[in-house]
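Chain X:
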Amino acid sequence: MDLVDGLRVLVASVETGSFSGAAGRLGISPKLASKYLAELEARLGTRLLHRTTRRLGLTAAGEQLMTQLPDWLDQLDEMTGALREARRGLSGTLRVSAPVTYGEMRIGPLLRDFRAPHPDLVIDLRLSDRFVDLAAEGIDLAIRIGRLDDSALVARKLGVIRLLVVAAPAYLAQHGQPAQAADLTRHLCLRDTNMRGDGAWPLTEAGQLHRIAVSGNFLANSARLTRDLAVQGEGIAICPDYVVLDDLARGRLVHVLPQASGPVLDIHAVHLGQRRLARRTRALVDHLAGALGSAP
């Protein structure tokens, strides 16, 4: 066993809380992770972890080692990575978490552009609409939309998303055009259940915020499906701008109630605060900020 491998297993085990979590992060088997840790303890002549059936806990020696070890490993990666990257560009694996629809439509293409000049870089994009545990799942960078709740994470704002009220021309021809936000209560509305809150649509009209209690025949936890239903004339929808901009440009959808503005949601890149950001992660954050900050 290489000493550095054993040290990486120790850090990953502590941060994920298990050998299986460490193994998943490092790309090895749980059995091998446990073996590396045992060999590290034998080499150092001291116990580093308490093992129980439920959890791992640091011994006093383990706590002492962990005060400096994560930063030391990060600095080692930084130094060796800089030598490789000077010749071939960025390398290693970047694990990125993002919401499903936004990840598919916006983040995926941007990651492809980012990776193109770096043949040794591996992108591991994990799409989920839940807030993943960055430490437990070994995520380097997560894309979050809306209000941030976890103050333990370091965040950088990348851009904004605006929610737009839209409908198909065929629907408006049949049911009429709402003149003000309150008129939406008399229309078929398509509800995206990913939106936080009680289901009411928050719209600001003439400087006043209104919460419109809408109703309709379709609910879905997908902005893309809600857009598709709107295009097919099933009702009025409130959708993120990145989902409907092409449909608006092509006339498949119409911006309804342009005088009533929907919520503006911040897009953030978040990462764990106790670790030094790898060069590849810093470069990706800069790339995303440049692209999303200038998005229409």
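Chain Y:
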Amino acid sequence: MASSSAFEQDRIDRRYIAAALRLSRKHLGLTSTNPAVGTLIVRDDGNGPVIIGRGVTAIGGRPHAEAEALAEAGELARGATAYVTLEPCAHHGRTPPCANALVTAGIVRVVGAAADPDPRVSGKGYAILRSAGIEVKEGVLAREAADQLAGYMNRSMRKRPEVILKLALSADGMIGRRGEGQIGITGEIARRQVHVMRAECDAILIGIGTAISDDPELTVRLPGMRSRSPARIVLDRLARLPATSKLARSASDVPVLVAACSESPAANKAELERAGVKLLATETYGGRVALPELLEDLGNQGMSRIIVEGGADTARAFLDEGMVDRIALFYGPEAIGSDGIAAPIGRDHIPAGFELVREARYGEDSFAEWIREI
């Protein structure tokens, strides 16, 4: 009977952690330097568990998810269980640590998913709970939580954002056709999935070649979600982005950052700044923007997730530098042929250290995603 009861409790714990993870995606990409965490307060008065409080890290990073969930639960939190997707914080700011707030609220059990790599928190949050007599269960769906929190984990441990390389490939492994700019490779359903990915990131990054040849807008164009459009970043060593481009003309609406080096013409930079484009002073290595330094600067600005969308040279540069953490490949059903631009990566040549974590079909298109351990 005890074994059956333990099995049932484990099933319940996994169910509610999974629900908290789904909830936390609501603000993924919107919480600045803090991770997007989900918290559920669950109470069982003998008729089965019931959610009495829900919380997700607020836009901008405060309040934290635990505080939001406890506020909704009120006095009912006393004697309840808290399900958290990340170890509760243990460091003092202007408000008490979340671990202490759980103790004060009378929570009797905490089930956690991912461990927090922040040295101010790691293990300390759970220690506060245990010292107060709270039962703690760690590591429930830890892998799934770490996958979702990879941006925060990367910035905490590598001092830079998570880099997601997204490419759309034809059936014969091409990402475009020479001299034709942007062409459609995948269908509408797959393109909508890309917009969801964009909405969960802090920035979209492309090279200047793609910016000039395709003149993209790089916004989130799903109904009601334009406000979720992340910043747009262009690797543009000589500040060649035209002030008449869609990116520059929309800079006052959605931020545009141009990574330009000191040798770029002053007139070019001045024209872009007048259009509302923000310039990122970057270093040069081998005639290119120095990517490690750029990513470190973006991490210092609070960015945790960046999606690299093109083109082939930019993708190859990130791969060559070992700066890609997640690979997302969409495959269309049609071949492009001998005049195509070959992708720098494909299903049959994924770099060492990456693991396939998910596959899907979107209409006639297929999708596969790989990550590497942090």
